[in-house]
């Protein structure tokens, strides 16, 4: 099985989360043994926000939210959108077979990411900024969240569904 899959870098154990941690996905190595090549990405560090950084959340209109830091209220939407456009242009020139996302992230969450009102009240569910842009750009590209692949059977079923 030769596949090239993009993956949220924290799922590969890269310490790129806001608090310097990771969310290593235990099945990533097994997929390498089967021939998968991972292309890691981290929108928040690669756009220049650094590690550690202040946590962020989605706010506003669920279909077109802004990304705001929770404590100091900095708006990183334009920075993340600009980075997303550049990265998706690169992916358009590469032969990527799919994307595996870290869920619930304001950048990488593919589904069910909380969108808040400025008051702090959760008002809806949406998609992370980069995940939304990617799905809009490549609507037929297979993609899912690692949380949806908790065991090997689910991984193979996902790949067979392409
Ligand atoms: S969820 Fe996405 S933006 Fe957040 S640390 Fe992981 S790769 Fe980076």
Q: How would you describe this structure to a colleague?
A:
By secondary structure, the chain is an alpha/beta fold. The protein has one domain (3-160). Helices cover 28% and strands 22% of the residues. The protein contains 5 helices and 8 strands. The chain has a 4-stranded parallel beta sheet. Helix 3 (77-93) packs parallel to helix 4 (129-137). The longest helix is centred in the middle third of the chain and has 17 residues, at 77-93. It is globular and about 45 Å long. The protein binds iron/sulfur cluster. Iron/sulfur cluster is lined by residues 8-10, 16-17, 42-44, 102, 105, 107-108.
Keywords, please?
globular; binds iron/sulfur cluster; four-stranded parallel β-sheet; four-stranded mixed β-sheet; alpha/beta; 162 residues
Concise structural overview:
By secondary structure, this protein is of the alpha/beta class. Helix content is 28%, strand content 22%.
Helix content: 25-40%
Helix/strand/pairing category: alpha/beta
Biggest β-sheet: strands ordered side by side in the sheet: 2-1-5-8
Total domain modules: 1
The average pLDDT value, as a whole number, equals: 96
The whole-angstrom Rg is: 15 Å
N-end to C-end Cα span = 13 Å
Report low-confidence residues grouped into runs of 5 or more: none
Instruction: Please provide the count of β strands.
Output: 8
Strand portion: 15-25%
**What's the tally of helices?**
5
Which H/E pattern describes the elements? Answer: EHEHEEHEEEHEH
Shape call: globular
- List the bound ligands: iron/sulfur cluster
Biggest β-sheet description: 4 strands, parallel
């Amino acid at each position: 099985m030769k596949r090239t899959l993009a993956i949220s870098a924290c799922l590969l154990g890269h310490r790129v989360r806001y608090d310097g941690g990771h969310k290593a996905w235990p099945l990533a190595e097994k997929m390498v043994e089967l021939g998968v090549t991972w292309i890691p990405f981290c929108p928040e560090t690669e756009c220049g926000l650094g590690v550690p950084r202040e946590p962020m959340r989605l706010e506003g209109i669920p279909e077109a939210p802004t990304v705001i830091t929770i404590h100091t209220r900095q708006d990183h939407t334009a920075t993340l959108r600009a980075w997303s456009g550049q990265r998706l242009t690169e992916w358009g020139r590469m032969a990527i077979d799919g994307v595996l996302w870290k869920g619930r992230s304001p950048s990488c969450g593919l589904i069910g990411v909380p969108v808040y009102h400025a008051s702090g009240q959760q008002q809806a569910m949406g998609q992370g900024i980069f995940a939304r842009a990617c799905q809009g750009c490549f609507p037929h590209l297979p993609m899912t969240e690692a949380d949806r692949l908790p065991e090997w059977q689910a991984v193979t079923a996902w790949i067979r569904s392409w």
